[in-house]
Write a structure and sequence with these properties.
This protein has 45 helices and 22 strands. The chain is of the alpha/beta class. GO terms for molecular function: 3'-5' exonuclease activity; nucleic acid binding.
Length: 959
């Protein structure tokens, strides 16, 4: 009989192409599927666990993981755990092999979160029981080689949430297991059902099998899965594995995406990553960031292990040195010349890259811009490096052919810029303080002797200048040590290579461990650079220190004690930074470090100006110029003068300065709020917020029944904090950083209210009359805001928070889905680093934008408006405006002209964070995003708009 046709006749499905299911069987199967867990247990019994294991399981589960989730009191909980542990001890005592009993109990409980307490009590009780009851003879009987091997197999098969505990308890270590473990590790990594790379690495680490495996088995897979922290611990101290991982990563540096995807293919074939994940990995900054981490002395790796990465660093630093001219107003200076000739030596294989970079820059500049400075610099470097124009491409050859006198021009420039002179062995500051250059061990010893002879009441200032290097850690090129009688300049650039480790340890102990007072401005940063340069342990260095004082910390403490001691608003640069929004956090809270610079203190405390123009000069170049020597010596010597002036100012106010200094000696840690301080800043409740809104909004509605017209403001330097708060709440506020600036802004903006306080009020009122509003300085920030909002009848609304750009006060934001910012960031990074549009591969991004679903991006759309890579056209329409990818521009609706997007100021980890969308300011290009805002504003904003950071982070923008 044909069963197929029979089945067809009855209309029933075929089971295994053999027997048709009857309608009764189908009904039974349906009922079986709908049974609850409890009904199945009643029908089939408690389970397949044999006795007494089933009873043990139920007993322990009832005690430590009961079905009834009713909370127990602490006393009941403690008693229950004691009963459970006593029960477990009895089970172990009665078992023929307690190790087997313990493991059987472990196996019947899954790795679920609800059984963690069971595992914790099980392991703790068993280890305590073994310590009390086991003897060498019993251990030999219980833990046989066969039993260990069998248990090892079970541990791996069970799953390894408790791997380290089980390996320790079962003493699973030794050569007898090595071959078996090696096979198991490979099985874990190539399993088709589930690849357990982390577990494989844990086994390899536990059994010290680092040399048994290549990086492609589990090291690279874990890196691709972004589990770098686990990899770091495993590879540290193992040269071969670290080297091979670095070589793999380095092979993709400066390569095309096509080549990189070939390198990724083996891992895609093993289904470790899919194509999208592979593409994201090769186009993120993870490859250079991993190389930056691993190619260091910490991992025993030299730059030569990663030649491509080293070349990328050198060329990147070259472009930075050539074109970062903010401090020189775009001009070429001796400082730039010194940096480049140190970075690219005359014997360097990268000499030609200097010329090529300059001509690439010329090609990228607008036709109307002045390019002459780059042409002149190209001549200079062509002569300095003794290069032949005929060895370059056509554009460069043609230019030099058109300049028959280029050598003479370059020679004149060399005379101007290559002004190296003999390093002065002695010099002096303007006040006659002598300067001594130290470049021998004997000179260092003599310096220390002279300092120690000054006695324990003496003080020294310590500062440092850093090397010009492609390394990412700051290293010292010059150490400045100043007493009141003399300044010593210690040539670290030379002595670092000449002195032994023992000599450096002696020097360090005597310099930082003597009885004299050591004063630094940002001492912790200097100590980090000192330890990095000499490869010393920072904590060991800090342990040798005595009587070390950080001037930045001291100035913050003085301000906390009495803000009238140091009036930072008298510092021009400090006011400017506040206006730019760079130090608002520090100004607004006395419990955090303020962003104080040494130049601020010199201006405010010593009523002088500190020239910082040479801060970025080349301190690795030898010989140093005379102006560099004077600059470096001044920085150290002036620390003592500020310290002494602080004492005079504090004493005048009646404070015990010596006691304050003693309290912070050797305390270099960044200050954090104490629990008491945090408690004082408790969040405003919804009820309190409602009362605040009611009181302010009631005042905002005037007697005639309507809200006043929107108000706009100008704040002077006394109220930048208030101005920032108002701007965050959506109020139109602009900042004036000086009296003259405020007068000009007030005349230009005749409808703006001026918020001020202090001695300038009479002058302001004489000019602006009733437009001047005086706010009390003694009020809290919250009270100041309430006063302004109430006085001018401004209604408060949570929806207004962060509707203005904190940088420029603009209120037009383009809503860019994450895919648009990712595209912008990738293009800006590649084109910015290489000056070559062709290195940006737009195709995959175009596809993502075309397929973008608004539901995935917070409801915000993006549509491709123009796309022509050959003509560098890639324009995307977003909510409220358009984004020009190639030109890195944003054009907001109702804004007259596009502005450059501040794309590369956003860190890669933010771009890759998974946030659905970003806000781009249409007035200045600054980028914001929804998030916690680093808690910089929550303490205040929670009080004003009623949000609670513990409940939601969605309404506050980061920047």
């Amino acid at each position: 009989m044909d069963t197929t046709s029979a089945a067809s006749d009855t209309g029933n499905p075929i089971v295994n192409d053999e027997t048709p299911m009857t309608s009764n069987a189908l009904e039974e199967e349906k009922k079986e599927r709908t049974l609850t867990k409890a009904e199945k247990k009643e029908k089939y019994g408690k389970g397949s666990f044999p006795e007494p294991l089933a009873t043990w399981r139920d007993l322990i589960k009832d005690l430590l993981a009961p079905v009834d989730k009713t909370a127990r009191s602490a006393e009941d909980e403690k008693e229950t755990i004691e009963i459970a542990e006593s029960t477990l001890s009895q089970i172990f005592g009665l078992a023929e092999n307690p190790y087997k009993a313990m493991f059987d109990i472990y196996v019947v409980f899954s790795e679920k979160e609800k059984y963690k307490k069971v595992h914790r009590s099980l392991f703790k009780t068993f280890e305590e029981w073994i310590q009390k009851c086991a003897t060498p003879e019993k251990m030999e009987k219980w833990l046989t080689s066969e039993f260990k091997v069998e248990t090892m197999d079970k541990i791996v098969n069970k799953g390894m949430g408790q791997l380290e505990n089980l390996l320790r308890i079962f003493q699973l270590k030794g050569s007898e297991l090595e071959d078996r473990i090696t096979i198991k590790i490979k099985d874990l990594c190539i399993s088709e059902s589930k690849q357990l790379f982390s577990e494989a690495m844990k086994l390899a680490n536990h059994f010290e099998l680092h040399e048994k495996f290549d990086v492609d088995l589990f090291i690279i897979p874990l890196v691709l899965k972004n589990k770098t922290d686990e990899v770091e611990k495993f590879i540290k101290g193992n040269y071969r594995i670290t080297r091979d991982l670095i070589r793999y990563l380095d092979s993709m540096v400066e390569e095309t995406d096509q080549y990189k995807m070939v390198k990724m293919k083996p891992y895609m074939d093993r289904k470790i990553v899919n194509e999208r994940q592979a593409y994201e990995f090769i186009n993120s900054k993870r490859i250079p960031s991993l190389l930056k981490k691993f190619v260091t002395s910490e991992y025993g790796m030299e730059d030569a292990v990663a030649p491509r990465f080293e070349e990328q660093k050198i060329k990147g630093k070259l472009r930075y040195l050539l074109f970062d001219r903010e401090a020189t107003d775009g001009g070429f200076t001796t400082t730039i010349f010194d940096h480049i000739k140190t970075h690219i030596k005359k014997s360097s294989p990268y000499r030609k890259d200097v010329i090529i970079a300059l001509f690439d820059r010329i090609d990228k500049r607008d036709k109307t811009e002045d390019k002459s400075t780059y042409y002149e610099e190209a001549k200079l470097w062509m002569l300095y490096y003794d290069l032949n124009p005929a060895d370059f491409y056509t554009t460069i050859r043609s230019y030099f052919s058109s300049q028959p006198n280029w050598r003479e021009d370059a020679a004149r420039m060399l005379v101007e810029y290559d002004t190296g002179v003999e390093t002065c062995s002695e010099n002096e500051l303007e006040d006659g303080t002598p300067i001594e250059w130290i470049d021998t061990w004997e000179g260092m010893v003599e310096m220390l002797n002279e300092i120690e002879e000054l006695g324990e009441e003496s003080m020294i200032g310590i500062d440092s200048e850093f090397r010009s290097t492609t390394n990412y850690k700051q290293e010292i090129a010059l150490l400045q040590v100043s007493s009141q009688e003399k300044v010593y300049l210690v040539d670290f650039e030379l002595l670092d290579r000449k002195l032994s480790k023992s000599q450096w340890e002696q020097f360090t102990l005597r310099l930082f461990g003597g009885e004299h007072l050591k004063i630094g401005f940002d001492m912790l940063s200097d100590l980090k650079a000192y330890s990095a340069t000499l490869k010393l342990d920072l904590e060991d260095l800090r342990c040798t220190m005595t009587r070390v004082v950080c001037l930045k910390r001291l100035s913050n403490d003085l301000l906390d004690l009495d803000s009238s001691i140091i009036d930072l608003t008298q510092s021009t640069s400090y006011r400017t930074r506040i206006n730019e929004g760079k130090s608002t956090q520090e100004v607004e809270s006395a419990n955090r470090q303020r962003a104080i610079k040494l130049s601020d203190l010199v201006e405010v405390v010593l009523n002088s100006k500190l020239d910082k123009s040479l801060q970025k000069s080349n301190w690795s170049n030898r010989p140093l110029r005379s102006d560099q020597i004077i600059y470096a010596a001044t920085d150290a010597n002036i620390l003592i003068k500020i310290f002494i002036r602080f004492k005079e100012m504090a004493t005048e106010k009646g404070y015990n300065y010596e006691e304050m200094v003693e309290s912070i000696e050797n305390d270099l840690a960044e200050r954090k709020e104490t629990p008491t301080e945090k408690k004082k800043k408790a969040k405003m409740t919804e009820e309190e917020y409602a009362q605040l809104v009611e009181s302010i909004n009631a005042a905002a509605i005037s007697a005639n029944g309507h809200e006043d017209k929107p108000k706009s403001f100008i704040t002077d330097s006394s109220f930048f904090g208030l101005g920032k708060h108002l701007r965050r709440l959506g109020v139109d506020v602009i900042f004036a950083d000086s009296k003259e600036h405020l007068l000009r802004l007030g005349r230009e903006n005749k409808s703006r209210i001026i918020l001020s306080f202090g001695k300038n009020i009479p002058e302001y009122k004489a000019v602006f009359g009733d437009r001047v509003f005086v706010v009390g300085m003694g009020m809290s920030a919250l009270d100041q805001v309430k006063k302004v909002l109430t006085e001018f009848k401004i209604k408060l609304s949570p929806s207004n928070v962060f509707t203005r750009c904190m940088l420029c006060n603009g209120d037009r934001f383009v809503m860019a889905p994450a895919v648009v910012l990712q595209t912008l960031h990738d293009c800006a990074k590649r084109v910015g680093e290489s000056f070559d549009d062709e290195l940006f591969q737009p195709g995959p991004f175009k596809e993502k934008i075309e397929n973008a679903n608004p539901d995935d991006y917070g409801g915000f759309e993006c549509k491709l408006e123009e796309y022509d890579p050959k003509d560098s056209r890639f324009i995307v329409k977003c909510t409220n405006g358009v984004v020009d990818i190639y030109n890195n521009l944003v054009m907001a609706d109702s804004v007259d002209s596009p502005v450059e997007v501040q794309t590369l100021k956003v860190q890669p980890e933010v771009v890759e964070s998974g946030r659905p969308f970003y806000y781009i300011c249409g007035s200045c290009g600054k980028i914001y995003w929804d998030g916690t805002h680093g808690q910089r504003y929550k303490e205040f904003a929670d009080g004003v708009v009623g949000t609670d950071s513990s409940k939601s982070n969605e309404s506050v923008r980061n920047e």
